[in-house]
Amino acid sequence: MSKRKSKRPSAGFNPIAKAVSGAAPLNKGDDGYTQALKIRAHAAALAFANGTGTQSDAHILAAAFNVTALLVAEHGHGQEHRGLLPPWRDAVTNLYQRSDGRGGIGEMAAVSAGLELHDALLDTVTLSEMTAVLGRLKAFMLAGLLMEVPRD
Question: What percent of the chain has pLDDT over 90?
């Protein structure tokens, strides 16, 4: 009868480091990823302000809205700014449905206020919260409740 070998944990897994990294802010050590997300969303808003917005830009604004709305609704971030979400949603919907590439003053004000909230939440959200939000968004997309954002 051969001796039974014991299973050893792999040397690459450190449960304490994994727990700490999940509780760390998203923008800590991300090599500018959150900054790139912010820039991309603001560039899309600027395209509509300049009259050159496309449906792809509207998709980017919709993705920023979806992430922000889930962070507020399910994770309790920014509850005091909850009133910004309906006008932002309506503005993004109008920008998407209208194909002229221009945003009105009211729409751009709602989008600008929403993006400020989005930027503030990206600075405070943790990696584990963002992972949960992205998982929920993927489930919504698979269920057909959200459109997938096209990649440029």
Answer: 20
Token pair 């304490």 is found at 16
Would 70 be classed as within a structural domain? yes
pTM of the full structure: 0.75
Q: Report yes or no on 7 lying in a domain.
A: no
Residue 86 lies in a domain: yes
Q: Which residue has the tokens 């603001």?
A: 42
In whole angstroms, give the CA distance from residue 45 to residue 28.
26
Tokens in use for 5?
A: 């070998």
The candidate with the shortest Cα–Cα distance to 134, out of 35, 48, 67, 62, is 67
Q: Label residue 37 by pLDDT band (50, 70, 90).
A: confident
| Percentage of the chain lying above the pLDDT 70 cut | 75
> Total structural domains in the chain?
1
